[in-house]
Amino acid sequence: MAAAQSVKTICFECHSRCGVVLSIEDGRLTGVKGDKDHPISRGYICPKGAAAPEIVYHKERITRPLVKNNGGFAETSWDNALSIIADKMSSAKEQFGAESVVFGSGTTRGMAPYLNRFLTQFGSPNFMAPSNMSGGPIVMGSSATCGFGLTDPDYTNSRCMMLWAHNPENSWPGLYMNDIRDGLKKGAKLIVVDPRGTRLAKKADHWLQIRPGTDVALALCFMQVIIENQLYDKDFVENWTDGFEALRAHVADFTPEKTAAITWVDAGKIRDAAAAYAQNAPASLGPGMGGVCQANDAFDLTRSLTILAAITGNLEVAGGNLRCPPPTHKRACYGADHDPFVNLPKEQARKKLGTDRFPLMNFIPIPSPPQAVWPAIEEGNPYPVKVVGLFANNSVCAYPNSQRVRQVYEKLDFLFAVDYFHTPTTALADVILPPAHWAERDDVEDLLMKSHVFAQPKAMEPIPECRDEKQMLIDLAGKLGMTDFFQNIEQILDYRLAPMGTTYREFKEKLWHFDGFEYKSYERKGKFRTLTGKVALSADFLKDLGISPLPVFREPDESPASRPDLAGDFPLVLTTGGRLLVYYHSSHRNIASLKKRAPDPELQIHPDTARGLDIGDGEWVYLISPRGQVEIRARYFEDMDPRVVHSHHGFWYGVKDGWKRININMLTSDEPLCPVTGSVPIKALMCRVEKMAKNNEKQ
């Protein structure tokens, strides 16, 4: 037996890019621990990362290419599988144009630049990803306001940290919790805006238990309190912003008393929290990727939060919200890898799905929202989509309105999927390709919110017949005659690192690089990257796109206030999608160590509400919305408004037709969307809860 090896690399189970040390014995992965030398995670590892050996060697892992055969799947060769895919893509391109081929990924982890580059060289502008539900609206709202996208909340150096619809203990523990703990140890105040009493909410100096879907009203009220009491940064506002007087007039009516009636948050608590944020500079504001991006007014909310940071002087300062320029390796190739307008003729690039309905996407390179792709498949609007390739994308379960998603895929001429395991989505595929695990491949990774870039060295060879997704694209490009695409994986990685003046072989010895942050870069440049050179509190250019120049609160389309006609049958507010530490969206529901920690979908419900319905803690119940019903286990949760319930998402495994019976997205809606970002309205819906049959077993 060979001596055990320790290999440092990057975990890929979520976007946090935590450092891990893998133990390899005789070419097999035998253990995982956190890397204490990693600059962000500092040795932290979550249950998902720790489960890597279980995932790699799971008996249900797909290890050979599969083709649909007599209602099931049969093993085939890589050559045959790729030939089938290439033939279908070529045929669709010839008959309907290259735009009739769409590739989609789950959360765009890792594969986005490669898929975009492949598609644009093939001739299609259509890369689909759920960015409209996670991160995309933040990029769009911030870019329209101050000229740059995601910011990094500098919690470590903050005197006040505000977490808005953000629970990083479960969603980003390796990325943010070390910094938050650092800030708390230094005495920083903590403000949490969340309908649920999370552990961080209960630790907070100010917890605002908001009614789901009313965040914009609360943010406008924060501005009203700050402006009326002259708590804003007068120097920054005078010298570096446009539209302050218009903003002052716009928010004047959002008094704490009026806003309390809308949000269900006490007026005094709103005043105190707004003052705490404004008077304890530098202050950081951390928005939840899903929490602020899944509403009909997501653009207005992300604009509002950026404006709050701006008028309090917390943009680009230590302890505030730092501008995150793309890491060095991205700066030279970001556009070519992400924006079809760089690589395609304008006429073809303008066919990108979603740009007609969401015109701001013509200027900010956000992937096509899935909900903009569905009509092209369903009815050929604005043109037909015939072939879809999905990479790590269980969208039948993970996207809202699951029933529609399944029906959409059933209409395709051809669907292929790349995934570790069979899912309700791969069940619809014509071809399934088995990818290498992140421990089995070399890659270059960067952080969404920081200017770090990491090497992800391969720790071992892939299980035979599993293949690095980058190699899949190289081989598929060969089948399609795309001679301009990359020829090998090392060439891809060297291309990505070329702007840093290094190669992958050199960089993987170093493991990571950090460019550092520049504070107040606008002073050196003399401007912000906006049309006026200043932060656009009132973004007048939006008028030309039919968008309000100032953030507007819209009552959720399905709420007790907007739909009193539904309130009798559906008296409770349903919010969905809070993260579980042990899962990332719908992934790995078949992994025993993770399933043991969270075996069933649960409905967090106030005990008084549950007892009023004769429902005990832990009982299975029916959760019903205007669109259908699912089965779910009721879990008493004291720190919840009795008028609100919450369900986690992504459950599907282990129940016959489970995606229908226990998947919360059978109840969610994918319309109406945010008119600017295409965000989906899944944080504020209406529902009722009913007791199950006497034996209280899942039916």
Automatic annotation (TrEMBL):
Record field: transmembrane: none
SMART domains, sorted: Molybdop_Fe4S4
Single GO MF descriptor: oxidoreductase activity
InterPro entries: Asp_de-COase-like_dom_sf, MopB_CT_Acetylene-hydratase, MoPterin_dinucl-bd_dom, Mopterin_OxRdtase, Mopterin_OxRdtase_4Fe-4S_dom, Prok_Mopterin_Oxidored
4Fe-4S Mo/W bis-MGD-type domain residues: 4-60
Coiled coil region boundaries: none
Presence of the UniProt keyword Iron-sulfur in the record: yes
Protein name in UniProt: Anaerobic selenocysteine-containing dehydrogenase
